[in-house]
Amino acid sequence: MEKKLSELLPGEKGAVSRVAAEGRIRRRLLDMGVTPGAAVVMRKKAPLGDPLEVTVRGYELTLRKSEADCVTVAVDA
After folding, report:
1. Sign of torsion, CA 21 7 39 31?
2. CA–CA separation, 67 and 72 (whole Å)
3. Sign of CA dihedral 30, 32, 35, 41
4. How far apart are CA 77 and CA 34, in angstroms?
5. DSSP labels for 11-50?
6. Which residue, among 44, 30, 31, 40, has the nearest Cα to 3 in the 3D structure?
7. Distances from the Cα of 47 to the Cα of 8, 12, 63, 70, angstroms
8. Cα dihedral value 8, 54, 27, 75, nearest 10
9. Residue 70: helix, strand or coil by DSSP?
């Protein structure tokens, strides 16, 4: 099943299947290791849902909800 990265619940795991952003945001996400095939784990969400903390490629990464909306994740069943 596929979800947007921003829709994952804390503790959910998956693999990045697509990065739909363009321009600077796409470049920034790719430079931070959010690339197709990378394993991600949702760690925390702020009370209002922004920002989010995920683990990707062995490090903690904090993203804005708008950035996480551009990333599609294949969720582990």
Report:
1. positive
2. 11
3. negative
4. 21
5. T-EEEEEEE---HHHHHHHHHTT--TT-EEEEEEE-TTS-
6. 40
7. 14, 17, 14, 21
8. -40
9. coil
The one-letter amino acid code at 25 reads I
Classify 64 in phi/psi space as left (phi over 0), alpha (psi -120 to 50) or beta.
beta
Tell me the sheet residues that pair with 55: 41, 60
Full-model pTM: 0.84
H or E segment to which residue 58 belongs: none
* Full pLDDT tens readout for the chain, 77 residues: 999 999 999 999 999 999 998 999 999 999 999 999 999 999 999 988 789 999 999 999 999 999 999 999 999 76
